[in-house]
Amino acid sequence: MTGMMTVAELFQAIDTDTPPVVIDVRREAARLESGRTMAFALRALPERADVWAPSFAGCRTVVFCVHGHEVGRTCATILAREGSGAVFLQGGFEAWLEAGYPTVPLLPGSAQG
């Protein structure tokens, strides 16, 4: 079973000497609808996880989707299979927003991977 991290744990982890790699794996429609993301998050398309996951072998990663359900868990499982110390964000981006943690607007034409 893939592990998870709470939003409070992530907020603490990003302010350390060795922060995890944080990956926004929300489906594109949901991501665009929100118009926001975490400033430190990379973007990766969940439907291409088999392609990009090997790039994170040996890295500690946290993936987030909208609610911390299927998309995030699936991507974390694929990352773990490829050798990443991967977890998904419990409650997803919605939990991050509800907790009042910082976000930034999406950049126009932001890269997708």
Structural write-up:
The chain is an alpha/beta fold. The protein has a single domain (3-105), classed as Rhodanese-like domain (Oxidized Rhodanese, domain 1, 3-Layer(aba) Sandwich). 33% of the residues lie in helices and 20% in strands. The protein contains five helices and seven strands; from the N terminus they run E-H-E-H-E-E-H-E-H-E-H-E. It has helices at 7-13, 28-34, 49-52, 70-81, 92-98; strands at residues 3-5, 21-24, 36-37, 42-43, 60-64, 85-89, 104-105. The strands form two sheets. It has a five-stranded parallel β-sheet with strand order 1-6-5-2-4. It has a two-stranded antiparallel sheet with strand order 3-7. Helix 4 (70-81) links the parallel strand 5 (60-64) and strand 6 (85-89). The longest helix has 12 residues, at 70-81. 35% of the residues are buried. The mean pLDDT is 94.
N-to-C CA distance: 25 Å
**Major sheet strand order:** 1-6-5-2-4
- CATH level-1 class: Alpha Beta
Mean pLDDT: 94
How many domains would you count in the coordinates?
A: 1
